[in-house]
Structure formats: C-alpha cells, structure tokens
Design brief:
single chain; 100 residues; mainly alpha
C-alpha cells in the first residue's frame, strides 16, 4: 500500500467523493432524473429479491438512501425505516437478556 491509501476504506471514500462531486455538478433536472432512475431501479431490484435469492431488504434500503439525496418523501421513509430497525434490534436485545 502506498502512503496515500492507508486502508481500502480510504480508496472507497475518495471514489465516493469524486462521484458525489460529479453528480452535484449536473444541472438539477438531470440530477433528479438520474437519482430517480438509479434509486428506483435499486428499490425494484430489492422488491424482486424479496421473492428471489438476495438481500432484498438491504437493497430496498440502499435504493431509499439514493432517492433520499433528492426527495424528501424518501428521506422520511428512510428515517422511519431506521427507527423501526433500531426498535427491532432493541427488542431482540431485550429478548436475549431475558433468555440468559
């Protein structure tokens, strides 16, 4: 490894920064259409993966995260999903503690 790339995460972070800068440089209508297309495709793939093999719920959440960069309704849904996931994890921890 070089000194510029100490960890693999640093490489991903740099690439993500370049992609984000390129997307933000697009005119707003083009950016909204691109985000809607990519995010919608990922959500639809996630829905398909609910009945097919694959991480359906993770793909749906990833699609919502993409859509949330431009749409307020997606941001609200993502926040609601995060709250539900946290509540589920807490409930699971409580059940595990009672079992011990």
């Amino acid at each position: 490894m070089t000194t510029n790339e100490a960890t693999p995460a640093a490489g991903w972070s740099r690439r993500l920064g370049r992609v984000t800068a390129a997307v933000r440089g697009l005119p707003r209508p083009v950016r909204v259409i691109a985000v809607a297309s990519v995010g919608g495709t990922v959500v639809l793939a996630g829905v398909a993966m609910l009945v097919l093999p694959g991480p359906g719920i993770l793909a749906i959440l990833a699609g919502l995260a993409i859509l949330a960069t431009e749409f307020v309704w997606a941001r609200r849904m993502l926040e609601r999903s995060k709250a539900a996931a946290k509540a589920g994890v807490d409930k699971g921890r409580d059940a595990l503690q009672r079992r011990r």
